[in-house]
Each structure stands twice: as C-alpha cells, then as structure tokens.
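ok posting inputs for the zinc ion job
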Amino acid sequence: MWWFQSPKIAFGEDALEVLKDLEGKKAFIVTDNTIRSLGYVDIVSNYLKEAEIDVRVFDEAESEPSIENVMEGSKLLREYAPDWIIGLGGGSCMDAAKVVWVLYERPDIKLEDISPLVELGLRKKARLVCIPTTSGTGSEASWAAVITDKKEHLKMELASREFYPDLSIVDPKLPVGVPRKVAADTGMDMLINAVEAYVNQWKNDFSDALAIKSAQLFFKYFLRSYENENDQEAREKMHNAATIAGLAFSNSQAGVAHAMGHSFGAAFKIPHGRATAVFFPYSIEFGFKEAGERYAEIAKAIGIEAGAVHEAVRKLVDAIRAIMKKIGEPLTVKEMGIKWIDYSQKLDELVAKAEVSTCNFVNPRVASSEELRELFTYAFDGRTIDF
Ligand SMILES: [Zn+2]
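and the output
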C-alpha cells in the first residue's frame, strides 16, 4: 500500500482572496525582511483582517533557517498561541514555518527524532497555510522541511506526512521582485525536484504524471519567466509548475543531487538550489546505468528528438547545462570561487554526509563513498562523466 497526499491548493489569479474566508482567531506569519519590504505581509494581513483574524509577524526567518532561528520563532509563537501558522516566502520561510509549528505543538520532541515513521499528532493547536513567493522549492506542496545545523555543518532533512500544509495558496502575482539569482537557483531546484521524482526508487504512477508535467512546463516557460517577470503567462505557469513538482517529489522522493547539494550547501554556505544544481547534470550521467530509460522518457516528453536512449539522455543533460549557462548558474564548484585546497580538505566530510542522506538511498543508483568522491571531484572542475 502507498499514499498520495496533497494540501488543499488555491491557485490562479486572486487565489490569495481565500484568506478572507479563513476561520480562526489568530494567525502567526513566518516570513523574512525582504518579503515584508515587498509589501506581501501587508497584503496577506489585510485579507486576514477581513476574516477578523488577528495577526502577528515573525519576519526573521533566515535563508536556510538554522536550529537557533526556528527556536527563536517558536518562542514567540508559544507566547502568541495562534490557531493558524502562515509560511509566506520562499522555501526557507515555509520550512521555518513548518518547524516552528512542530515545536509549538510538540515542545517535547527533538528535531532529530522527526521522521515519517513518527506520529507527531500535529493540529491540536494550529493549522498551517503556505504561500510561496518564489517558483521553485515546492515546500508548499511537500512533506519536507530542511533545517541547518550550524554546529554540525549539516542539513537536517525532516519529513513527516503531517507537514503537508492544510492550505497552500499559489497566487501568480506573488513571484514578482524576486532577485534574479534567487529566481535562477529556485527554478533549477524545481527542475531537479521533477527529474529526481521521476527516476528514484520510490517513483509511482501518481508522481510520474506530476513529474513529467512539471518538467514540460519548466522547459516551456522557465526562461521566459526568468527573462521577463512581467510575462504573466510564463510566471503563472512556472508558479504552478513549482507546486506540481513539489507534489511529485514529496509523493515519490528526491535523489543524489539533493544528497550532495545538502552536504555541500551546509559545508560551504551555498543556497540550496545552487548547491544542488551544480551536481545535477553529473547525477544524471551517474544514474544513467540504472535509469537511462526513465531519463530518456523525460527527454522525449520535453520534445527532444533522439534515437537511442543514450543519445536522448546526452541531449537532456546538454539541454540542462545550456539553461544553466544562460541563467548564470555555476556549472562547476570552481566557478563558485571555491579553491581546490579548501574543497579537497572537506571531501571526506562531503562524502560522508551525502552517503547517509535519504536522498542517496532512494537514488536509482545508490552511490558508494568512492562513487560520491568521484562525483564531487568531477563537479569541481567540470569533467563530464563517460556513461
Ligand atoms: Zn530541492
């Protein structure tokens, strides 16, 4: 037996207006300064006021939130005791919202004990709304929350079926004013979510359909929306695509690019999307042996014409690298300004952490520590893997 799970999703023009009908007394918005300065906190608060809901704002969610950061947020949350938690922003704000919510409902639980196998019994005090302002991470549709353990230089990959928001609002007017670097990083994250959802060992018929659709939307609309945020059609399609890819990977799984990205991102403080994207083409080359047909199906779905499976996957990897180049996404670790001497010193740590990541265990081809070492090394200066 398996499950498919999704939040209730309001999408399309003026989707935010559903907030007017929210029933409750107090809402706690988890967001960051940038989102606040873009005016989105006011927009959301005004709708909530129409619903006669009192609002308090925590606008200090860090990018890639740390344990200390969510602890601080949860303290304020406990004092305020709301019946709604609203994650407003990119993946970091939404992940922070999920975790402060757990700490509010279950102050007795240790973060490291959270897993899909543990019943948390959430929703006794509050429910969760997620409102993405970037198009990428899919946190609004997922059961995952990633928190940074600064002391251990570790990304904690927390997951629970109870983390799916009660309501997600995918309103296409929100992803405006996103810095281009962030749009590039999060857009790549979206594509990786779609592709890894389609090839990993937990793939299933339900997630397959969503993974393919979101990959198609990405290849059709991403560059258009990236180059012109006023292209409303492209922006709306990409915003939907990000949520669809989020549903795909959280009802399936991710893969080794995410395992490596989490390990590398924590060690070198690189934003999630960029840290993962740099390993993505290599992960496909590496996974080809076990999942060549599946990658070729994605290639075909996005309109790549090729004869043999090998040729289709080669062209898919080329297409991904071409997009990364166009949006200035680094293709190698070296391009990020990291020196080999610093990187090589941390190789053992990078390998060890990626190896034990759940995202590695479910990859179509589980990477051994030797293979991870090779992958990390290839990705440093961009040698392609001969598959
Ligand atoms: Zn991701």
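notes: The mean pLDDT is 96. The first helix runs from residue 33 to 37.
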